[in-house]
Amino acid sequence: GKKSLRQKVVEELKHYYNGFHLLWIDTKVAARMVWRLLHGQVLTRRERRRLLRTCADLFRLVPFLVFVIVPFMEFLLPVFLKLFPEMLPSTFETESKKEEKQKKKLNAKLELAKFLQETIAEMAKRNKAATG
């Protein structure tokens, strides 16, 4: 069924609350990683990627907060998200957006794999012709 305006507003508020909560958790973890880095420890590749993602999210949060703080500017947020889809921090992404990104990445990887297979097959033909 259709959702009432109140239900839509409550869902949006929950979405933003959860997004800020996840960003807070990521920030605490990133602060611990920075502390470890400052004391000479080495981060794993996964930790380094998480630290970079969290830093990028914090930088993306600044323009996002303008929309939250300035009255009635949140009505322009969908327009800006269409113009700048990477503006929101990663903790605010919906599942459908995450799936869309994964599909695009997978299609790009498949295209690259096809290209590499064709290239290897072509190289094999040339080597066979040169030796045979």
UniProtKB/TrEMBL annotation:
One of its GO terms (cellular component) is mitochondrial inner membrane. It is found in: Mitochondrion inner membrane. One of its GO terms (biological process) is intracellular monoatomic cation homeostasis. One of its GO terms (molecular function) is ribosome binding. Residues 43-128 form the Letm1 RBD domain. The chain crosses the membrane at residues 58-81. It is a single-pass membrane protein. Signal peptide: none annotated. InterPro entries: LETM1-like_RBD, LETM1/MDM38-like. This is LETM1 protein. Keywords: Membrane, Mitochondrion, Mitochondrion inner membrane, Transmembrane, Transmembrane helix.
